[in-house]
Amino acid sequence: MFIRMIGMFDVRDDSGLDRTPRGSKARALLAMLCQTPGHRRPRRWLEARLWSDRGQEQASGSLRQALTELRKALGPLADRLTSDRDGVSLTGFRSDLMADPTAARLALAQGRELLEGIDIVDPAFNLWLAEERQRVASTLGEAGLQAPETRYPLPFALRLADLPPGIETTIARDLAGAVARLAAEYLLGAATDGHSAPGDRLQSGLDLRVEGVWSDDRAYLKVRLVDGDNQKTLWSQRLVASRLSEGRGEATQVAFETTETQLM
Question: How confident is the model over 250-261, as a mean pLDDT?
Fold first, then answer.
């Protein structure tokens, strides 16, 4: 049995037949077991992360239903998922993180994420997922530093997330241009510092982090460019974006106020 963790979650048997469960929580349950050392978790641990808003009796019933769904989806492979009154275990599988970490690292560099498509409205699961994505990215990044084939820097992706709803694409274009100039200045600056070549200064790419909140009719944004190696903030900027309309029938425009620019 093969489980794909980077990108869209996918389960295949040895003949390539799709064995992926349909339910998000059944998928999440399988993924959490896959990512656990020893591949076994107590029932209460799983219940607390997938049904944290329910009482224990109801959460236990929901876990039983998810296990039933999983066994049905796995078909002849159902014996690889075992459970008793204390915990749930998974055996007899491989994952892309186990089998080909180099390909998984490349997929992350190209913008894919761990466990895409598993959307669960549960803060406990979302916290686990965020921590796991950070751990996997860190682990694969550290492995990349040791691998000769990844000596040169990976490409960085411009990702805009957690922006207030309604923000126009103008922000993406403006930020992309600004960050591209800063990235080039940072990377090419390594060639003139007298100590390192361009390929040595950055190994794990650049991460653009954007956070924002609404207040009245303005969006307050904080933008940071972070070195993927040491998580050091290289540049940060605060933007205030507001909607402007010159008159009836005129298209709404976005005006920007920029403050506290910092290049490190």
Answer: 57
Instruction: Using alpha carbons, select from 28, 39, 19, 12 the residue that is nearest to residue 63.
Output: 28
φ/ψ of residue 39, rounded to 5: 60, 40
Q: Where are the domains of the chain?
A: 2-146, 170-263
Strand partners, 127: none
What is the pLDDT, as a whole number, of residue 30?
Answer: 97
Residue 82's DSSP bridge partners are 89
Task: Enter the pTM of the model.
Answer: 0.56
* pLDDT for the residue numbered 144: 47
pLDDT for res 138: 87
Q: What single string gives the DSSP state of each residue in 24-81? A: HHHHHHHHHHHHSTTSEEEHHHHHHHHSTTS-HHHHHHHHHHHHHHHHHHHGGGGGGE
Sign, Cα dihedral of 135, 125, 29, 86: positive
Cβ count within 10 A of residue 48: 16
